[in-house]
Amino acid sequence: MTKKIFYQNDANLEIFKNKTIGIIGYGSQGHAHALNLKDSGVSVLVGLHPESKSIQKAQNEGLEVGTVNDVAKESDLITILAPDHIQPTIYRNEIEPNLSAGKTLMFAHGFAIHYQTITPPQSIDVSMIAPKAPGHRVREVFTKGSGVPGLLAIHQDTSGNAKNIALAYSKGIGCTRAGVLETTFKEETETDLFGEQAVLCGGVTELIKVAFETMVEAGYQPESAYFECMHELKLIVDLLYQGGMEYMRYSVSDTAEYGDYSRGPRVIDDKVKQNMKAVLEDVQNGTFAREWIAENDEGRPRFNLMRQKNASHPIEEIGKELRSMMDFLKDSD
Fold first, then answer.
1. Residue 122 burial by Cβ neighbours in a 10 Å radius (0-12, 13-18, 19+)
2. Of 120, 105, 32, 27, which Cα lies nearest the Cα of 71?
3. Cα 66 to chain center, whole Å?
4. What is the mean pLDDT of each run of 10 residues along the chain (333 residues)?
5. Distances in Å between the alpha carbon of 282 and those of 48, 86, 199, 277?
6. Within a 13 Å sphere around the CA of 96, how many CA atoms are in the beta-carbon half?
7. Among 155, 202, 215, which residue's Cα sits nearest to residue 310?
8. Are the CB atoms for 257 and 249 separated by under 8 Å?
9. Is residue 299 left, alpha or beta, with left meaning phi > 0 and alpha meaning psi from -120 to 50?
């Protein structure tokens, strides 16, 4: 049976001896990949546009910074960690001209390859290591000697060594400490987008807002509704993260557990599942990708309106007031 999950002993950082990795972008994922690789003893360059506000930050953290063009030219492996919607422009203008045969082009998300906004030449390896956590978490747990799980996918294996190179990269950023699951660009992209939209971001925030509105409209104090629908969510998520649903249910009261079983399916019913299937279909057939690309091409008019509308929701207003009194949150910043 082919191995699907890889750990520390499956990867060898010696692959990068006398090699240079170029990290394009220094945002959430970019800073984590660059610093973790540097701490793992790998030669790292950071590629940024000349006006980037991140240049000084990267230099202050001990990293060598250059233009995207120069970094792409000098690097043996180039990881594109810029936002999905600007990757194609960066690639066409500054990376593609420097992709000589034998190099590796790497991604942390499959969007550009899966939806063909980037089409690399056949002369290079194309792979992906996608940490299953925000970049700041990737960096945080690495510095504590741990790591976050990751996904590995190979789109082109021109060298015949693409998987070993990707595994070495995953070890360099700490993912093999937790486990790296082999997948495909298609599966990573579609599951990632669906998870964000249906549960992790879209589903959770809508559930919170609707529950808050329901309680306030019924006459309960907004402060009480905030504590119940937003603040306590972290406590439940931490239990789920630690031991799954069974451990969460073991940790709460029997009353809460019974309410979970008996009322949860009334809220998340078959209609919701059908809606989720429709969302997944939009991801699978490219509707969402085309919509998002068009939104950016048009200057983000709908995105900006939705961002503004959600930022002014009453739960955000009361939340800012209540969090300002929680000194422990300031300490965590």
1. exposed
2. 105
3. 25
4. 85 97 96 98 97 95 97 98 95 97 97 97 98 95 96 98 98 97 97 97 97 98 96 96 96 97 97 98 98 96 97 94 87 54
5. 33, 21, 15, 9
6. 13
7. 202
8. yes
9. left
3-class SS string, 132-198 = CCCHHHHHHHHHCCCCCCEEEEEEECCCCCHHHHHHHHHHHHCHHHCCEEECCHHHHHHHHHHHHHH
- What is the rounded CA–CA span in Å between residue 232 and residue 226? 9
Q: pLDDT tens digit string along 263-312?
A: 999 999 999 999 999 999 999 999 999 999 999 999 999 999 999 999 99
What are 311-328's pLDDT values in tens digits?
999 999 999 999 998 988
The residue length of the chain stands at: 333
- C-beta separation of 155 from 127 below 8 A: yes
Q: Which amino acid is at 62?
A: G
Q: How far apart are CA 29 and CA 23, in angstroms?
A: 10
pLDDT of residue 64: 97
Contacts of 117 (CB under 8 A, 6+ apart): 84, 87, 88, 111, 293
Question: How confident is the model at residue 84, as a pLDDT?
Answer: 93
5-36 burial by CB neighbour count: b if 16+ within 10 A, else e? ebbbebbeeebbeeebbbbbbbebbbbbbbbb
| Residues involved in catalysis | 109
* SS3 assignment, position 47: strand
Of 137, 163, 136, nearest to 151 (Cα)?
A: 163
Q: Is the Cβ–Cβ distance between 47 and 68 less than 8 Å?
A: yes
Burial of 333 (0-12, 13-18, 19+ CB in 10 A): exposed
Question: For position 3, what pLDDT does the model report?
Answer: 67
